[in-house]
Amino acid sequence: MLRVDGVTKTFEDGFRALKGVSLNAGRGDFVTLLGPSGCGKTTLLKVVAGFLTPTEGTVSIDGTDVTREPPERRDTAMCFQSYALFPHMTVAQNIEFGPRQNRVAKDERLARLNALLTQVDLEAHQHKLPNALSGGQQQRVALARALAMRPGIVLFDEPLSNLDAKLRDQVRIEIRALQREHGFTAIYVTHDQAEALAMSDHVLVMREGAVEQEGAPEEIYTAPRTSFVADFIGAANLLTGTVLGEDGPGRWQVRTEMGTVKVASDEPPVASSVHVSWRPEDAVLANGSANGSGNGSGTGENLIQAPIVARVYQGSFTEYVLDAPERPAVSLRVHATQFGAREGETLAFHVPPDRLRFLEQVAS
Amino acid sequence: MRLRRAGLILLLLLPGLGLILVLIGSVIVMAFGQSVGYFALTGESGFSWEHWREQLDGRLLWRSFQYSAYIATTSSILSVLLAYPIAMWLRRPFRGSLFAGALLKAPLLVPGLVAAFLFINVISFHGFFNELMVWLGIIDRPIRMQNDRNGYGVIFLQVWKNMPFALLLLTGSVQAISDDVLNAARDMGAGSIARFRKVILPLTLPAMQAALVIIFIGAAGDFSFQAVAGPTTVNSMAQLMVRLKGEFGGYHEAGVVAVLLMALALFGSVALAGLTRVAVRAGMKV
Q1: Beta strands A284-285 and A346-350, pairing class
Q2: Rounded CA gap, B118 and A155, in Å?
Q3: B149-184 pLDDT, tens digit each
Q4: What is the ipTM of this complex?
Q5: What is the largest CA-CA distance in chain B?
Q6: Rounded distance, CA A211 to CA A205, Å?
């Protein structure tokens, strides 16, 4: 459906926003471009939409090279971060704009309008101007306007960033439901990792104009390949480790800031000095309290004892911030659901070896 | 209590509103009063429609009225038409855009009379333009362009002087349209003309109307451009007013012309703004 091949974008001032990015999305896929501000995700979206022409590389839709085609000649529709509704047009006129431009017959146009108004629950607001609507309603109009074009690909540029947390969850579900119902391919840009994990079939984590890692959300979360991905997707404890040697098949002994630990991994470390990560919820508290991660099968390996420097109650769990035993300047974070330890006390926990991940080589 | 409150509001509004009412009201009252025989500077004052009858029956007034309406309408529309593409060009900053913008707005700083004199120097029979055309061999002998009978010279000067003003208003308005809105239109199949007609024009309509109205009023009441570069066969309303008062001492007749000039400015500009709105709305539906 959509194929982006080795796209590079260099702006007039010499700034390289994209460095050989490739992306494939099949019909009906929900692909998310995730990364911090300035990583190039919106630039990539604009290249796909046709608002920017890549310096190198190609963009193909359904096998046709559209790299030099203007946006109006591509089978794409974009939902903008700012909604970009036409302020002088009513909700109905906004939704009808695309079909009118594409000379869709009046009956068909009205049929699409009515169906979409029902789907996004805006029938009662169809004669209102956008400034009379709430943020969530405006977002739904923007979505309906894009869908009225019946595009093969819908491009979402951080569409939920202007909504409050509760509304964001609601609209997120609505977008996913509409995407499944209409079967369009969605390319979704966000810097919110929770949004990416919740909505996507496939995630591309971007950094400084390049794809750092891509895969299914579960894969990205559980098997990050770099410290950037581990840190950006959810909370992670990042350590530097020196590989001391093998400790059986697929197991290594590694010296880290929290002591010498065993790491069970299908992939061997890429160097003798590597970054190692584990998730705060992977810790199994040594006194037997469940930590809520469901990982209560700790073998007792990798026992760590560290002083609690901060305790942050988060509702469904409590986060403990600890000083790493071997190097107190490094903080460790542990999530627990049933534990009443306080600052100044020592927390004992295990990190199962298969929850520790080898990442990239430590830069010299 | 309500009366007291209303009185307080009126009192608070008085410094601003009162001044406006006094300044505008006194002019209107004076002009209208003189047109119906009051405020006579020579002779007796007294109510009479005679001056109106006399002026409305004469051809001179109607020719001036038509001419001023023609100059005002043409100049305001041309100024806005020229300002739009430049405003679009200056919409996004580029290297030198600040300088280009300042240069384009420079005519605002030049007094109209100075511009008119410079203009007739350039287009006069032995002026720079004719000499250049002859030297280049484009024409055999100089052609007469000064004080042309269609008022093209006046329109040129009006547009030269007023286009920067329209540009000032339209640039701000065009720049206020976000890229996303224009990109959204483009994304939905709107080409450059459709984007201009369906998005840019409606969103800049208030600025365009303001430019049209202000330029129309200024051009309708023009004296200096007309006196220096205008046709000698017809007077503008302002010119006629001065002529009636100066040459014939006809203060009451000048009052009639003044009232009609104010009516032209008011109704002409309102009609122009209204027609523009209708045209823009119609353009959106096509």
Answers
A1: antiparallel
A2: 57
A3: 999 999 999 999 999 999 999 999 999 999 999 999
A4: 0.81
A5: 84
A6: 6
Identify which of B180, B181, B190 has the shortest CB distance to residue A101: B190
| pLDDT tens per residue, range A231-281 | 999 889 999 999 999 888 999 999 999 999 999 998 899 999 999 999 999
Confidence of residue A296 (pLDDT cuts 50, 70, 90): very low
Which chain B residues are Cβ-neighbours of A50 within 8 angstroms?
187
Measured in residues, chain A has a length of 364
Interface test with B, best of A11, A75, A78, A139 (most B CBs within 10 A): A78
Burial profile B186-198: b = 16 or more Cβ within 10 angstroms, e = fewer: bbbbbeeebbbbb
Residue partners of A120: CB distance under 8 A and separation at least 6: A140, A141, A143, A144, A174, A178
Residue of chain A nearest B204, judged by CA positions: A88
CA distance A61 to A79: 18
Task: At A256, give phi and psi (nearest 5°).
Answer: -130, 180
Distances (CA, A) of B269 to A222, A279, B108, B127: 69, 71, 21, 36
Residue A28 · residue A176 · CB < 8 Å: no
Q: Would you call B188 and A97 a contact, using CB atoms and an 8 Å cutoff?
A: yes
Q: How far is CA B164 from CA B80, B81, B157, B171, in A?
A: 9, 12, 12, 10
B chain contacts of residue A80, beta-carbon cutoff 8 Å? 180, 183-184
In one letter, which amino acid is A30? F
Return the closest-CA partner of residue B254 out of B243, B266, B265.
B243
Taking only the tens place, the pLDDT of each residue in B19-69 is: 888 888 999 999 999 999 998 887 788 899 999 999 999 899 999 999 999
Closest residue of chain B to A151, computed from CA coordinates: B188
